[in-house]
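Journal club prep — side note

Before the paper discussion, L.F. wants everyone to see what a predicted structure for a comparable chain looks like in token form. Sequence:
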Amino acid sequence: MINCTLKRSPEVSNSQGLVDRSTSILTEQGVGVDVIRAVDHDIATGTWPDMTEHGWESDAWPELYQRVLRADIVVLAGPIWLGDNSSVMKRVIERLYACSSLLNERGQYAYYGRVAGCLITGNEDGAKHCAMNVLYSLQHLGFTIPPQADAGWVGEAGPGPSYLDPGSGGPQNDFTNRNLTFMTWNLLHLARALKDLGGIPAYGNQRSAWDAGCRSGNANPEHR
């Protein structure tokens, strides 16, 4: 779980409220959960795997990337600002993108075999727009997206209570709780299926094979 709130710990994060509900379902099923609050880490800006090799004095991303690789399920959570994802969410996606060209041991892109979803909250419109952007980005990088892989809560437009504020009705909202539950179980089901399958079958999608000239289904006069 990567929480892309703008608030550093220990400040209360409404996005964390949604993360906690999803996490509780997973832990009840014996799933280990690693929660990262991205803003607590010195994540450099850029689209290279390690930005210290490109002028930055420090970069927490290489270590966080290893934590992502240890996961079978990745969920990005964050708030809506000006109808869009937070700057922290965008930075995390950029850094995931920075490592998307790296390959696994089968010659596929590194995120193959992992499933992903997202959680969005705020007190302005745009939850579906934010989810659309996140889920498209994650599948483009190689994650597998199950059905109904997003959930969110949006309060009344304009200044008003946020998800965890007393009287918001957020934690009791049936629509949010249903979608969050479906998302979590669908992530769990698909992650289990991929695990049992041994990941995405490595035929027709291996970057290493393509670069070597083995181009399944394409005219390939160079390959023998």
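L.F.'s comment for the group: Residues 174-197 form the longest helix (24 residues). Keep this in mind when we get to the figures.
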